[in-house]
Amino acid sequence: MKTTEIIFICCLITVYVRGTVKATDCPDRWVAFEGSCYLFGHDLIHFTEAEEYCRQHSATLVHVETKEENMFLRDFLRDFKSADYWMGMTDETTEGIWKWYGTDKNVEYFDWGPSEPQNAHNEDCAVFGDTIDYTWADVQCATNRKALCEMQSEDVDIIG
Fold it and tell me: For the domain that residue 113 is a member of, what is the CATH number?
């Protein structure tokens, strides 16, 4: 190697090491993605129990707001297999008008599975459905699924 090549490599490493990287600070057992932290529950519980479980962890059932967030969660859920996961949206107040639970905010992004939402048998809550590759399905709120919690996190700077 020539001396100029060594200096160039040295300087690239220095810039990288001294650069600032943004990271999401999440508690243990939580998964980070773009300013949010996610907790995947283990127990089968109904919708309001799932929301309470999330609140006990200073979170809410997940609010999926972008395609990127949705794809991240779907990819992650595929590794778990064989379970539906609650998300925090419902159309209990007005059929077909999906809102984030506990707020009056309309859901703006959707990823319904084939033939969903159906509203068969008064299905007013939404899940990531394992039998439809974790696209969304409406289900009865009193059925048992696993909780998927989300909390907002501050980005932290990691300075190397």
Answer: 3.10.100.10
- DSSP-derived secondary structure letter, 114: T
Domain count, the chain: 1
Q: What is the pLDDT of residues 93-147, one digit of tens each?
A: 999 999 999 888 999 999 999 999 998 889 999 999 999 999 999 999 999 999 9
Nearest to 80 by CA among 16, 34, 31: 31
The Cα 151–Cα 149 span in angstroms is 7
Residues written for the chain: 160
Residue 5 within a domain? no
Cβ neighbour number for residue 30 with a 10 Å cutoff: 19
Q: Are strands 146-152 and 85-90 parallel, antiparallel or unpaired?
A: parallel
Residue spans of beta strands (DSSP E) within 25-105: 31-33, 36-40, 60-61, 85-90, 99-100
* Structure-token pair, residue 126: 């939404």
Q: What is the value of pTM for the model shown? A: 0.81
